[in-house]
Amino acid sequence: MSLIRTLTAKPWLEQTPEDLPALGRLPMPTARVGLVVFLAVVATLFALLVSAYVMRMSFGDWRPLPALPVLWLNTLVLALGSVALHLSVLGARRGKWTTTRLRFLFGGLCALAFLAGQLVAWRQLDTLGYFVAENPANTFFYLMTALHGLHILGGLVAWERTAVKLWSRSGAAGLQLSVELCATYWHFLLVVWLVLFGVLLADTQGLFVPHMHHGF
Amino acid sequence: MVQTAVIGDERAGVEPEHHEPKSFLTKYIWSQDHKVIAIQYTVTAITVGLIALVMSWMMRMQIGFPYSLGFIDQDRYYQFVTMHGMIMVIYLLTALFLGGFGNYLIPLMVGARDMVFPYVNMLSYWTYLLSVLVLVASFFVPGGPTGAGWTLYPPQAILPGTPGREWGIIMMLVSLVIFVAAFTMGGLNYVTTVLQARTRGMTMMRLPLTVWGIFVSTILGLLAFPALFVSGVMLLLDRVLLTSFFMPSIVSMGEPLGYRGGSPLLFQHLFWFFGHPEVYIVALPAFGIVSDLISTHARKNIFGYRMMVWAILAIGVLSFVVWAHHMYVSGMNPYFGFFFATTTLIIAVPTAIKVYNWVLTLWRGNIHLTVPMLFSLAFIITFVAGGMSGLFLGNVVVDVPLSDTYFVVAHFHMVMGVAPILVVFGGIYHWYPKVTGRLLSDAMGKFHFWVTFLGTFAIFFPMHYLGFVGMPRRYYDFSGINFIPDSAHTLNAFITIAALVVGAAQGVFLFNLVWSAFRGRLAGGNPWRATTLEWQTPETPPGYGNWGPRLPIVHRWAYDFSVPGADEDFLPQNHPPSRETAETAHGRPIAKGTMA
Amino acid sequence: MAVAIVLAALVVGSILFSLLSPWWFTPLASNWGAIDTTLVITFVITGVVFSAVVLFMAYAVFRYRHREGIAASYEPESKRLEMWLTGVTSVGIAAMLAPGLIVWDDYIRVPTGASVVEVVGQQWNWTFRLPGNDGVLGTVDTRRISAENPFGLNPDDPKGKDDLLVNSNELRLPVGRPVKMVLRSVDVLHDFYVPNIRAKMDLVPGMVSYFWFTPERTGTYEILCAELCGVGHSMMRGSVIVVEDEDYQPWLREQPTFAQSPAGTGAGKAMDFAGDLGTGAGRSGAERHGH
Fold it and tell me: Which residue has the higher pLDDT, C96 or B109?
């Protein structure tokens, strides 16, 4: 494996003949490396939240939330956005900028619709009496959806900047990369949402067996 | 092989649209230049660190000479304890090593023109400054800053009976959350720059250990700070919205509260999942920097470079599976003790290897006792002393009588307070000539060194024995405790005097920093005759874009000191291979009489 | 030269300091001599390593200090030496860890037949509860705590009726009998810390923690709080008085039972107190706390 080969190289022996060692970089655009590092941080954040969720639920007072139907709709909308951005990337690769733009626009609008849908879910929970501080399950739901929503909002800023470029100077250098990075981010946040939603569903269905313990 | 500068730049991944700023404002204030940002980080961190230093004097006065300063009441005492710890760990050390040293050295050492995302880098500093301002502002809100201890353990942190529970704790948590955002922006840059912007010939295994230390430390930070973020936000919700993440049913001062069902231990797990890697976030850059200082000033290659890199990586990985050794007597599942004691003591092995290799680098060296070298030697001693006491505390059952005593205070100050700070000093004496073009005064430097090193040893070595006696930490008042002999109080008074002296000696250092910037001896480009790239810049201090028209090309590792047959006792990394050595197919022969 | 001398002096000074230091542990009053032994093993090993490393450094600094005409040698690494050092270090680490883990295993296993004492912490004083004749502590809930019922006992639990309430910061224990301390807090974290006993443990609101020991010397020993619990932290004191059995029984008879207290006579309020904490009285702690 190349990582092991890298780490076991004896640097004091390396000769510097005519062909210098390869350039010091990964076979990936720098912006993408930056995004991947950032996504690793965000993934850690949500992983910690989920583990805190699972640890906290084992205490006796946990009352799972209902899985509201609107959440299914939101999931669908977010997935549609992801698909649209993926198609947009395909368009950009073929240089079909008109379709690229439309699909890109649609993808962002889906994310906006998802955020609106999440707000609807919050309103419904509030009406049903699932207040933030009422039960830790509620608090976790509000906290996780809020943090996820904030990340979507951040993504929409990048999306807006890319969209402006798409309309003003189609085909500019780096534009395809920008579209690709947006798509990656969308896919990532979709996966995060699916995990969060999955945890909620499993909890509602009683798949986690809550038991009173103080063991950790 | 011969390339134009433009191609070299593009292939090194530097953003081409990055133009040199001309106005004062864009050059020194809203600067995107990594060197300016590094200085901004350093100055801010040292300034806020001075506040923390003064607070340590205040609390030492109360411990050494109880009630001699009338204004230190219980509330203030705990506020000083808390703010001293929090500032030193997060806002000084983390910010200084990564925001300061990391920002200045990474691009220069890997041969890049700047960080890969300069704009984000600039935002990182301003966000950090905001977090510092929020922190400092908490001194001026009603009730003052939080006095919950730097660990901010709930329920105590947010309940009556703890100073600053009104506003102080809220501002503390908000400040931490902002700091995490700032760190993430900076960290993205450090990691990506090391991965993507190394110049031609700079393989990962040719990186100086300074870069390795900062690189791995940043990765730890990126993965650990989210735990602080999550626990901080959750605690904030418990405080403000009265949620029950960490709060069980509680009767506080006779008043039943609305909380129910939460778990204080959940917070401790999250906090230490961040908190333990944090120790290594501070230690790894120090490990890296000290390796380079020792090698340069002993005119000898670092011994066992590969082992040093592997040890950094091993420590980085292990640091995520030892967190609960801070919780042996926390009431957690006691069976966890077996696991965490074992992992904790295993981490001592790669750490010990690093110590051996530093010492073996001195062996058969040509040791120049410059100020950076003196600080490096002091680091090794202090770090070994602190590491040894860590073996007591990591070994679960030995921790039981010692936990929450002054033994713990002595341990962590030596291992993650004094030891890294000694490296900070060593690093500043070493790189100051590159930053300013002038050397720091040697006489002032030596005075600063001896007082700081011997003074801190005099503070913290005896303090371990107060822990043996059983003196608990975080005590405002020890009066009326019969098992504590009078001699222990005398020792405390001695420690306080030592602390005042060491603190005052830092004034000499600050004066030196300012005085030498104008009056110091001119340094030239490479006063230490060092090999790493930052000393090979065409200008000193390095100009905008660092390298002039052409990026350097790296031909060798960072430790070609005293190479047999070479004219000089050092070969810079960009020194082209000589005809003779190029002809030997597989490396240069190793001199007779070495250990290899 | 001067530097090498200072480094060597530092080692000599540290050793002398350790030998001459009047600052050492309080006299042991419990069965936990094994903790002291493990600590001394660790102390000796780490002391030897510290001295060896620093003396080696001092010698290297002296021997290889810069002089005109000398040159450093060039030695990138030595696999053999590094392997050897790694091996020796691992052995040293194992020599410290193994006894530590063995003693820890004792530490967390409460012997059968240990009597039970509950410690209740609140800002900033200690109180205690003993299980009474039935040997079992009644269930409690923090939300039942009131002026009449400071321990939060469940009045409907028959096991709690005979519990003895020690509403004072002074606890007596009979010498030579193992005791399991079960710990809970009504507000914030505390830590029950008696230096002479060596053992200690946090009190955590919302849960019950424990440790055990056997008092082996009669006498009065100070209780301190060892987990920051607010501004009164350093004033949270108490004492454990270890006495012979003939002095213990009369003290025991003086303590009121829950049934004699104001709250012990009435029935519980009609609330859902499903969350009442059992305190695992009289049984090994492992079944409640371990998994």
Answer: B109
Give the pLDDT confidence of B143-190 residue by residue, as tens digits.
999 999 999 999 999 999 999 999 999 999 999 999 999 999 999 999
Does the N-terminal peptide bond of residue B372 adopt cis geometry, omega within 30 degrees of 0? no
Q: Is the pLDDT of residue C243 over 50?
A: yes
Backbone φ, ψ for residue B473 (5° rounding): -80, 170
How far is A53 from chain C, CA to nearest CA, in Å? 18
Q: How buried is residue B572: exposed, middle or buried, by Cβ count under 10 Å (0-12/13-18/19+)?
A: buried
**A30-56+71-204 CATH:** 1.20.120.80
User: Domain residue spans in chain A?
Assistant: 30-56+71-204
Q: Does the beta-carbon distance from B230 to A13 stay under 8 Å?
A: no
Q: Count CA atoms within 13 Å of residue B487 on its CB side.
A: 9
pLDDT digits (tens, 9 = 90+) for A110-140: 999 999 999 999 999 999 988 888 888 999 9
b/e per residue, C176-198, with b = 16+ CB within 10 A? eebbbbbbbbbbbbbbbbbbbbb
- Identify the closest residue of chain A to C208 by CA–CA distance: A214
- Rounded distance, CA B98 to CA B183, Å? 9
What is the three-class DSSP state of B533? helix
B200/A41 touch (CB, cutoff 8 Å), yes or no:
no
ipTM: 0.92
Please tell me which residue, A58 or C76, carries the higher pLDDT value. C76
Residue B392 CA from chain centroid, whole number = 23
Give contacts of B336 with chain A, Cβ < 8 Å. 216
Give CA–CA dist B151/B131, Å, rounded. 18
Tell me what pLDDT residue B2 has: 31
Strand runs (DSSP E) across B83-224, as ranges? Answer: none
**Rounded to 5 degrees, what are φ and ψ at B512?**
-55, -45
How would CATH label the architecture of B29-249+259-583? Up-down Bundle (1.20)
Per-domain residue ranges for chain B?
Answer: 29-249+259-583
C-alpha neighbours within 13 Å on the C-beta side of residue B58: 21
CA–CA separation, B249 vs B258, rounded Å?
A: 7
Which of 19-58 (C) contact B at CB < 8 A? 21-26, 34-35, 38-39, 42-43, 45-47, 49-50, 53-54, 56-57
B199–A24: do the CB atoms touch at under 8 Å?
yes
Over the stretch C252-264, which tens digit does the pLDDT of each residue have? Answer: 999 999 988 877 7
The answer to whether B483 contacts C195, with C-beta atoms less than 8 Å apart, is yes
CB–CB of B399/B328 below 8 Å? yes
**pLDDT given at position B242:** 93
Query: Is the distance from CB of A100 to CB of A137 less than 8 angstroms?
Result: no
CB contact under 8 A, B184 and A23: no
Which among A60, A213, A215 has the least Cβ separation from residue C275?
A: A60
Chain C, 136 to 195: residues with Cβ < 8 Å from chain B are 141-143, 145, 147, 152, 183, 186-189, 191, 193, 195
Distances (CA, A) of B14 to A175, B5, B20, B113, C179: 18, 12, 13, 7, 69
Nearest to A214 among C76, C207, C275 (CB): C207
Instruction: Show the domains of chain C with their CATH numbers.
Output: 2-66+78-108 (no CATH), 115-289 (2.60.40.420)
Nearest by CB to residue B562, choosing from C35, C72, C108, is C72
Verify whether the Cβ–Cβ distance B262 to A133 is below 8 Å: no
CA distance B188 to chain A (A): 6
Selected residue of B86, B159, B251, B303 to mutate for chain C interface (largest C Cβ count, 10 A)? B251
Which residues of chain B carry a pLDDT beneath 50? 1-17, 580-596
- Residue B224's pLDDT is 96
Is the four-CA dihedral A167, A169, A170, A175 of positive or negative sign? negative
Q: Where is C219: in which H helix or E strand?
A: strand C219-225
